[in-house]
């Protein structure tokens, strides 16, 4: 959860409140995404991985991961769908959550999954190279 660049001092429990708000929005958006999936994409799973609201609740970054996607065209299609649904989803969040102010949502790809996959790939390559070199001791 290191993406939150907003000043969140622990005075008065603001951080705890913000974490609860982030989780509430994440849960509601996941439900909305389940009811309104991306059309034309079978075998692709879109997941809301993180929500980061600003302290004043005016803006929220929503991070999504896409599993089973091959290529950037699928990612672009998903982001376009989310952008198209954004106004309706913000309205539904306002009604459901009853906040004084509903944050403006901005959807972004969460690159942590891809980065983790790349690290695992590099580790597998290194392990394979070490097995191919007989006679050398492992560290």
In brief:
The chain is an alpha+beta fold.
How would you portray this structure in words?
The chain has a single domain (11-132), classed as K homology (KH) domain (GMP Synthetase, Chain A, domain 3, 2-Layer Sandwich), CATH 3.30.300. It contains three helices and three strands. The chain is elongated, with a radius of gyration of 20 Å. It has a three-stranded mixed sheet. The chain has 139 residues and is of the alpha+beta class.
Indicate the CATH topology: GMP Synthetase, Chain A, domain 3
Count of extended strands: 3
Helix-strand string: HEEHEH
Query: What best-fitting shape do the alpha-carbon axes yield?
Result: elongated
Count of domain modules:
1
**Proper CATH architecture:** 2-Layer Sandwich
The overall average pLDDT, rounded, is 83
Helix percent reads: 40-55%
Radius of gyration: 20 Å
Question: Which SSEs are present, and which pair or pack?
Answer:
Blueprint: H1 14-35, E1 45-53, E2 59-67, H2 72-97, E3 104-109, H3 112-132
Parallel strand pairs: 2-3
Antiparallel strand pairs: 1-2
List keywords for this structure.
GMP Synthetase, Chain A, domain 3, 3 helices, alpha+beta, 139 residues, three-stranded mixed sheet, 3 strands, elongated
